[in-house]
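[step 3/7] inverse_fold.run input=structure_tokens len=523
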């Protein structure tokens, strides 16, 4: 009996047989231990390929900066400012006709808007892919298998893009790539945060975007060595996702215990938590079982509750506001990146600086999100980005080509604006994760991603306009960014809030918290 008494005193939680995932993580695993770190690291590596697939067109679809006359006697002594004034046979691009799709397929002059088509269609593909992968990740496949499928499809479509014979096949394959890569962002965010304690969830979600910045930074490095042929750049980036999928993702990444629990696979969820605990140097009680945060029969009814999500007043209101905000952020975030070619600065250096600005955005944002409310942090970020874009209009214009300092100041202002919108982009994802419960979280994140992609699909058209009138694109990005900052205040604050499991549970708990808050205010 003495031995038994000592065991009881040593492990008082052994008699608490049924715990939720949150309770098990907080009490036995630790909020963020080595096992969660490894899971987050391995999952977030996929964001590198997401960045490469998305932003590769900054170089492959860029308009060459200079051209030369190959028949001086036909060019005459007139100083031409545009190749549109010359016959095609008397001039060529200085870097060669295979340096970009614009150069190879002559997407200039009356065909210039075709140059925006592949990137716009890419984001439309991402829009549809977000819906499909959001459904698959919440339903039949789960987070891990959906991520695996997304990576393999992305690798395949990127390679096929390098073989495109014309602009129309190229556009179709960019659509397919956009569809394929949509699952990476959705699944990475959810899979890396669902086994993290409440204290570290926001920071971990932020730091995951660091890998997107690494992927972004890798593009100008590879593009510089493949600048004579755009097809080589696609070929290079097609191999990394398949290697990652086979040798890292499949054998070493675990499925989300929350998703397993929603699917009724509680024993598998417990096994995942046991592996995490073991790596963290802890041990789960032998008689522990994992339960839903709500009644099991409610889980059964709500495990496929997308219909309820779309027909409940408070959830619809949140979704609409999140998607409006996401549309604006997507337009500005991707628009600034693609518009870098209109800065009248070295393209490789400009892109590299933008990519490096994402890195401090991740770490500064990761610190600020731990001490600041989500809404205030998001709003201040988009306001800063908006005013930076508007300030860039002062330095825009082709008349300043001989003033290096003017363009350097413009690039500096643009880079700080991009850092701000990068932080807002990351914070919005974190906020969306916390606004909705587990059984619809992937679906709602996919809807946010669709809004982001819809906004992004418009940005290439503004970049094309910016080649002739640079102030138009910067002014549009600035105004849209500022408007997004005001919209966010119609959403509830979620800092330090728990992750709920079902819609019914979240509604009841939030109503209870609101009632308690009103009671305190009344006193």
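[step 3/7] decode complete -> sequence:
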């Amino acid at each position: 009996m003495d031995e038994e008494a000592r065991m009881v005193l040593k492990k008082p939680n052994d008699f608490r047989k049924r715990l939720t995932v949150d309770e098990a993580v907080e009490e036995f695993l630790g909020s963020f231990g080595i096992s969660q770190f490894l899971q987050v690291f391995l999952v977030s590596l996929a964001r590198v390929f997401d960045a490469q697939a998305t932003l590769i067109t900054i170089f492959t679809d860029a308009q060459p900066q200079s051209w030369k006359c190959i028949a001086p006697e036909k060019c005459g002594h007139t100083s031409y400012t545009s190749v549109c004034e010359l016959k095609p046979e008397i001039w060529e691009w200085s870097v060669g006709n295979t340096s970009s799709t614009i150069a190879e397929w002559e997407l200039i002059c009356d065909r210039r808007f075709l140059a925006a088509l592949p990137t716009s269609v890419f984001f439309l593909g991402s829009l549809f892919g977000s819906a499909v992968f959001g459904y698959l990740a919440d339903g039949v496949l789960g987070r891990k298998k959906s991520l695996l499928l997304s990576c393999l499809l992305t690798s395949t479509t990127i390679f096929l893009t390098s073989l495109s014979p014309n602009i129309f096949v190229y556009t179709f394959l960019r659509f397919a790539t956009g569809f394929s890569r949509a699952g990476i962002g959705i699944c990475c965010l959810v899979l890396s945060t669902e086994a993290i304690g409440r204290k570290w969830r926001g920071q971990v979600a932020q730091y995951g975007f660091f890998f997107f910045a690494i992927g972004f930074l890798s593009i100008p490095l590879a593009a510089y060595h493949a600048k004579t042929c755009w097809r080589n750049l696609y070929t290079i980036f097609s191999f990394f996702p398949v290697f990652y999928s086979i040798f890292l993702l499949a054998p070493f990444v675990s499925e989300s215990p929350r998703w397993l629990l929603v699917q009724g696979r509680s024993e598998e969820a417990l096994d995942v938590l046991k592996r995490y605990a073991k790596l963290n140097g802890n041990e789960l009680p032998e008689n522990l079982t994992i339960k839903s945060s709500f009644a099991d029969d409610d889980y059964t009814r709500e495990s496929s509750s997308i219909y309820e999500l779309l027909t409940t007043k408070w959830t619809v209101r949140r979704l609409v506001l999140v998607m409006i905000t996401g549309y604006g952020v997507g337009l500005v975030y991707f628009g600034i990146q693609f518009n870098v070619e209109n800065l009248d600065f070295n393209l490789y250096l400009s892109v590299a600086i933008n990519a490096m600005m994402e890195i401090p955005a991740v770490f500064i944002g990761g610190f600020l999100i731990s001490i600041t409310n989500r809404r205030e942090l998001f709003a201040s970020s988009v306001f800063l980005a908006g005013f930076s874009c508007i300030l860039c209009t002062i330095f825009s214009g082709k008349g300043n080509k001989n003033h290096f300092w003017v363009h350097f100041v413009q690039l500096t202002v643009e880079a700080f604006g991009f850092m701000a919108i990068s932080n807002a982009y990351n914070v919005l994802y974190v906020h969306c994760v916390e606004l909705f419960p587990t059984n619809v979280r992937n679906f709602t994140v996919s809807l946010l991603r669709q809004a982001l992609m819809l906004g992004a699909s418009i940005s290439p058209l503004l970049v094309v306009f910016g080649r002739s009138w640079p102030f138009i694109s910067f002014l549009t990005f600035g105004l849209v960014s500022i408007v997004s900052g005001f919209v966010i205040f119609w959403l509830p604050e979620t800092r330090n809030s728990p992750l709920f499991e079902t819609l019914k549970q979240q509604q009841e708990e939030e109503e209870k918290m609101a009632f308690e808050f009103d009671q305190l205010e009344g006193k």
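[step 4/7] annotate
The chain has a mean pLDDT of 85.
The beta strands are 18-19, 67-69, 91-93, 289-290.
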